[in-house]
Design brief:
The complex is a heterodimer of chains A (about 350) and B (about 400).
Chain A: E1 10-13, E2 16-19, H1 20-34, H2 42-49, H3 64-70, E3 87-88, H4 89-98, E4 107-111, E5 125-130, E6 153-156, E7 159-163, E8 176-180, E9 183-186, H5 192-198, H6 217-226, H7 234-242, E10 289-295, E11 314-317, E12 334-336, E13 346-347, E14 351-353
Parallel strand pairs in A: 10-13
Antiparallel strand pairs in A: 1-2, 3-5, 4-5, 6-9, 7-8, 9-14, 10-11, 11-12
Chain B: H1 4-9, H2 38-52, E1 54-55, E2 58-59, E3 62-64, H3 81-99, H4 102-120, E4 131-134, E5 151-153, E6 160-163, H5 168-185, H6 188-207, E7 211-213, E8 219-224, H7 233-250, H8 253-264, H9 268-273, H10 286-302, H11 306-323, H12 329-339, H13 346-354, E9 358-367, E10 374-383, H14 387-396
Antiparallel strand pairs in B: 1-2, 3-10, 4-6, 5-6, 7-8, 9-10
Classes of the chains: A alpha+beta (about 350), B mainly alpha (about 400).
């Protein structure tokens, strides 16, 4: 139920009518005393703390959609367009300047408490708060807190994404909306050293401890099971790689050879540019193919016959840099028997489910 | 793209048959001596290729001979068979053009038949295999090399197994050789055979939006000329050349239309200028240069659009930036034939005379076997793709003397 409309000159925050004078006073105090320290007025702090039933957080906070106009590489779930954007203090200042505003005058940057960080490794994140008289405050769209990801993993939220491709192979069609998450996924592929910890008889060339391990599907699944994890489904892998905007590569739509590891001799994350996927995964394009849990089957609605479909082959994703760059697309599918790597460099990363009731 | 380092890395040679028999039981035992005249050495190399590396008209790049014996196909890695066959057919075509020897034309016809079998064995029009073997069942050695899953039992040619996943470099080698055969060697009947082959493979490629597509419907791992997918600039040059070649051989307007679309909508002509990667230096690749040279050789001779020709020249200039410092005979002969500049100099000639078409060595290998791995010793031979084309292109251009 919407709160009563605010009278002209008043600020409505969660149904609490505040006098414009108090807001002006807070701003004035801040302008005089706190500009250098970026202190956020209590008024705004209170607004942030107090979730309310009413209208639109976009009126108070810079939204994902607004922030993306400033930073085109910024990504978010399409359903979260109106959700307040997470940004660093520096990004907040840049954005304010971009729209001709000043932090401390028109905007206030509010740091998130650690308990609300979606990705704890990204410290220093918060919201940019717009102080606009006459608006309501609603934080109901703010993402809920989640437990911190296990060491070496990143969080992928629940929600739909664009799976498949309209320009790839026939087995990538039809492009469709799929749902995956929430889950945690390894930031990197499992390394030789990590694999050897679980399977001591595993051998690899000296100096390649931090390179992606090459394993059959059976070995990869066994590793995942022993470490309390599992292999990602195709949908989970693809969402972790591309996010929700349907991008071709984990970093965007253009290929760049400096963004990928060349071969199995390169350590994980060893590419010059070291780009991350929208959720923080590294090396999801090139370096090594990666096993998924799924059999190679057609997507629903794909009637094109293919002898390889069925429960004969497991799907690999992500491409090996030795292959053509098209193989590194986020929607590209390939397949191998589960008991061989086919003399290809095939590694894997694991996922872990959130505890029930979380996320 | 051609990546020799990977080939070296997987160079696990194998052996079929009765281990431990006598040495040097291959079909051709002669091997050229360093002091032999150049033309004599070339003759022996040619016999070695057709004797020891012959697989029903196609050229096997690696073979291990005895102890299995000359009647058993004893092979190493087979994935580069098409480019070796294509360049060999190119050599035969230059040779026929230079000598008009009917025996050479017959050999070339047989090679063309082998290439047709690479297509026929797949059972799909325009789909070409990397290689094939006549065999009653799966060969255990298929599991040793690249992509064991790419070996298929032929339904079109019973008694054959074939290897799929044709790449853009193998594709280019075939088109290069078959086109030269059409241009310089084939009689009228065989010209039609060659043109029809080019038509089928290019039609399949165009129908799949400029991709090399395997029997599973998927683009092969290195089969990407597609405008809707990110691709190498080199591949833009390659496909423009292949389309122009197909148009030249068949007269079909569909190929002309495809060229127009790639240029006007996707700027393939601009991408082709950058086909040669110059920087960073460590990304320069000799294998890619070979592919570019084959593409430019046809495109710059068949193309009539001055705008595209100018861009081809710019692409060639970028190649020459590196080629000029190499003394590589092949690159210099190609550059000279396309520009008229006399760059096949004494140093290049001297280097050409040292080229070997077949190398032979003795080695020890660990061979997988049902009862467990075993170690064997054997002679083996590798074919170099370029020594014979260099010699015969030089003869064709009259810059190499028949008496040398």
């Amino acid at each position: 139920m919407r709160p009563p409309a605010a009278a002209k000159g008043d600020v409505m925050m969660h149904g609490i009518r505040l006098s414009w004078v108090s807001v002006a006073l807070a701003l004035l105090t801040y302008a005089i005393v706190g500009a250098a320290q970026m202190e956020v007025p209590d008024l705004v702090k209170e607004a942030l703390k107090a979730p309310g039933p009413a209208s639109n957080a976009a009126n108070l906070m810079v939204t994902n959609e607004e922030f993306k106009r400033f930073r085109s590489s910024f990504t978010f779930d399409s359903k979260d367009a109106a959700v307040p954007a997470l940004m660093t203090e520096r990004e907040a200042a840049d954005y304010a300047a971009f729209v001709g505003k000043r932090i401390g005058k028109d905007f206030f940057w509010q740091a998130l408490p650690p308990s609300e960080m979606l990705q704890p490794q990204k410290t220093g994140y918060g919201y940019l708060v717009v102080v606009t008289p006459g608006m309501d405050v609603d934080l109901s769209n703010v993402k809920p807190a989640i437990p911190p990801p296990p060491l070496g993993m990143v969080y992928v939220p629940e929600g739909p994404f664009i799976m498949g491709s309209q320009v790839g192979d026939p087995d990538e069609t039809p492009q469709h909306s799929a749902t995956a998450g929430p889950f945690f996924i390894d930031k990197y592929e499992v390394s030789n050293a990590e694999f050897k910890q679980v399977f001591p008889d595993f051998t690899f060339e000296p100096g390649r401890e931090n390179c992606a391990a090459t394993a059959t599907w059976e070995q990869a699944a066994a590793y995942a099971q022993k470490t309390g994890k599992r292999l990602p489904s195709e949908a989970e892998w693809e969402k972790a790689a591309k996010g929700t905007d349907g991008r071709t590569y984990p970093w965007g739509n253009s290929y760049d050879p400096t963004f990928v590891n060349w071969d199995e001799s390169d350590p994980r994350g060893g590419s010059p540019a070291r780009p991350e996927s929208p959720y923080g995964c590294i090396d999801m394009a090139g370096g090594a193919w990666e096993w998924t849990a799924d059999w190679y089957k057609p997507y629903e609605g794909n009637d094109a016959p293919c002898e390889a479909y069925g429960e004969k082959y497991r799907v690999i994703r992500g491409g090996d840099s030795f292959n053509d760059m098209a193989m590194m697309r986020t929607s590209q599918r390939y397949y191998l028997p589960p008991n061989t790597t086919g003399h290809m460099h095939v590694g894997f990363r694991c996922v872990k489910d959130l505890e029930e009731g979380v996320g | 793209m051609f990546q020799p380092h990977r080939t070296v890395r997987i160079f696990i040679l194998l052996l079929v048959g009765a281990f431990g028999a006598g040495a040097r039981a291959q079909t051709v035992n002669d091997f050229p001596r360093r002091e032999d005249p150049w033309n004599v050495r070339v003759d022996i190399y040619d016999k070695l290729v057709r004797g020891n590396h012959w697989n029903e008209g196609t050229v096997m790049q690696n073979v291990i001979f005895p102890p299995a014996g000359k009647d058993t196909p004893i092979i190493g890695s087979q994935e580069d068979c098409p480019i070796h066959t294509g360049t060999y057919l190119a050599a035969l075509s230059f040779r026929y053009a230079a000598t008009q020897d009917p025996q050479v034309r017959a050999w070339a016809d047989t090679t063309m038949e082998g290439i047709l079998k690479l297509e026929r064995v797949t059972g799909e029009s325009g789909c070409v295999a990397r290689s094939f073997n006549r065999t009653d069942g799966p060969n255990w050695h298929e599991q040793v090399f690249f992509f064991p899953m790419e070996w298929h039992t032929s339904t079109a040619l019973p008694g054959y197994r074939w290897m799929g996943d044709l790449s853009s470099d193998q594709f280019t080698g075939l088109i290069f050789g078959v086109t030269l055969y059409w241009e310089l060697c084939a009689d009228d009947a065989h010209k039609k055979v060659a043109a029809d082959f080019i038509d089928r493979v290019m039609e399949r490629c165009v129908d799949h939006n400029l991709r090399i597509v395997d029997v599973d419907g998927k683009m092969t791992l290195w089969g990407n000329f597609c405008p809707d997918l990110a691709h190498e600039h080199l591949n833009s040059l390659l496909i423009l050349s292949h389309l122009r070649t197909a148009q030249k051989l068949t007269g079909k307007t569909a190929y002309e239309a495809a060229i127009k679309r790639l240029i006007t909508k996707y700027k393939y002509d601009d991408e082709a200028i950058l086909a040669k990667v110059l920087w960073p230096v460590e990304w320069r690749n000799d294998g890619d240069d070979r592919l570019a040279s084959m593409a430019l050789y046809h495109l710059m001779r068949f193309e009539e659009d001055p705008g595209l020709l100018q861009k081809c020249r710019m692409a060639l200039n970028r190649c020459w930036y590196v080629w000029k410092d190499t003394d590589d005979p092949w690159f210099r002969l190609v550059y000279q034939s396309l520009t008229g500049e006399k760059v096949f100099d004494e140093k290049a000639l001297a280097r050409a005379k040292q080229m070997v078409a077949v190398t032979r060595a003795h080695g020890t290998w660990t061979i997988p076997a049902a009862e467990g791995p075993r170690t064997v010793e054997a002679d083996y031979e590798d074919v170099d793709s370029w020594a014979l084309p260099v010699y015969w292109l030089g003869r064709y251009l009259k810059v190499i003397d028949a008496q040398w």
